[in-house]
Write a structure and sequence with these properties.
Elements: H1 3-9, H2 11-21, H3 31-36, H4 38-41, E1 43-44, E2 49-50, E3 55-57, E4 64-66, E5 71-72, E6 77-79, E7 85-87, E8 92-93, E9 98-100, E10 103-105, E11 110-111, E12 116-118, E13 120-122, E14 136-138, E15 141-143, E16 148-149, E17 154-155, E18 160-161, E19 166-167, E20 172-173, E21 181-184, E22 189-195, E23 200-203
Parallel strand pairs: 1-4, 2-5, 3-6, 4-7, 5-8, 6-9, 7-10, 9-12, 10-15, 11-16, 12-17, 15-18, 16-19, 17-20, 19-21
Antiparallel strand pairs: 13-14, 21-22, 22-23
Helix pairs in contact: 1-2
Length: 205
């Protein structure tokens, strides 16, 4: 068993490592982690860019990868505390997005402004404890290739957004989005589907 696995399997060792790497009650890495650990364990592809005002709350025990020629714009927050954040090639993450792992984003994806993807939920069922101290539940969010997500959308844990689909601005996505579709609303529903035989987009009645 490797040393990393030993820390993951021991609550005490995990808490010790977390306290060494992150300020108390904060979800961000200490400066020494950013400078001396993360650059060696996290991957940035050729030509990729993270704007200087991006908040990178990424820890070394989970993966962060940014594919070649992809961009994360200013005022975005990326957090891999409870799950990997993987971003593909030629993908643009727009201004003021929030991406909390586990999240996998494909190639040639466009995120507009103020998009939120959170792969975790806080527990609340035990009324004797604050949700802060209850176990988190996580579900992988997958955004497939060629997707366009409009401004002010929220994608919830466990959702898969299918290839070449569009999520209209302001949508709250609770269920999987079919490939080659347009969804909109709260909760988001399919408005259009691409008919491969006729080669046209058709409204869903």
């Amino acid at each position: 068993m490797g040393i990393v696995q030993k820390f993951k399997d021991s609550p005490k060792l995990k808490r010790l490592a977390y306290n060494l790497m992150s300020p108390r009650n904060q979800f961000r890495p200490r400066l020494w982690v950013k400078l001396f650990i993360n650059p060696f364990v996290h991957k940035k592809g050729k030509g990729s860019l993270i704007r200087p005002r991006t908040r990178m709350d990424v820890m070394p025990w989970n993966a962060f990868r940014l594919g070649p020629y992809s961009t994360i714009e200013d005022f975005t927050t990326v957090n891999n505390l409870v799950g990997d954040v993987i971003i593909g090639e030629r993908t643009r993450i727009g201004l003021s997005n929030v991406i909390i792992g586990p999240v996998t984003i494909g190639n040639d994806v466009i995120f507009a402004q103020h998009v939120v993807l959170s792969g975790l939920n806080h527990g609340y069922e035990d009324v004797t404890k604050s949700p802060t101290y209850q176990e988190t539940k996580k579900g992988l969010i997958t955004v497939c290739d060629d997707v366009w997500i409009g401004a002010n959308c929220v994608i919830l844990p466990g959702v898969t957004v299918g290839k070449h689909s569009v999520v209209a601005a302001g949508s709250i996505v609770r269920r999987n989005v079919p490939a080659f579709s347009v969804v909109a609303g709260n909760p988001a529903k399919v408005m259009k589907l691409y008919n491969k035989e006729k080669k046209i987009w058709e409204f869903k009645i």
